[in-house]
From TrEMBL:
It comes from Candidatus Yanofskybacteria bacterium RIFCSPHIGHO2_02_FULL_38_22b. Signal peptide: none annotated. Keywords: DNA damage, DNA repair, Hydrolase. The keyword Amino-acid biosynthesis does not apply. It is an enzyme of class 3 (hydrolase). The lineage of its organism: Bacteria, Candidatus Yanofskyibacteriota. One of its GO terms (molecular function) is DNA binding. Its EC number is 3.2.2.-. Belongs to the DNA glycosylase MPG family. This is Putative 3-methyladenine DNA glycosylase.
Amino acid sequence: MRLKVNFFNRDTVIVAKELLGKYLCRKIGNKVVRVKITETEAYCGIKDKACHASKGLTPRTKIMFGHPGYAYVYMIYGMYYCLNLVTREAGCPEAVLIRGGEKLNGLRRGGEAALRGPGKLCLELKIDKKLNGMDIFKSKELWIENGEKVKPSQIKKGKRIGIDYAGKWKDKLWRFWVNPFK
């Protein structure tokens, strides 16, 4: 069952934790690929210097200023795309970065390494700029389904990756993960 808007229209840090174990679904051709989400990061609005919205409303960030449950897809290092899911109400630009997952079905490459890191995950799932602004509640190409229950005791937390420029915000423990290996 797909997640509904009320799941995303909440505190972003809570959403980041509760996305762990959910299924990221991507229709590629005639096949639906499901990946269990195993790593996320929360980005919490204008004051969070690691968040793209800290620069204000721009053509790039306008999706984040919109409604919860939309895909915010952008390119890093000129070669990798990253998938974020917008949280909170319109006007409160926050989102969760999907950093990693565990394949459940339908992927050609072997090994879990193909799904570790947001760029590799997007490459494997063919997520690119065409999906930026996608409404994941209505989309037939990209959505999130209820998945496996993750106990709070299974969740690990740490600093977000690659944001040394963000001042005191670099020290927030807003990266969450579960061990994808049983």
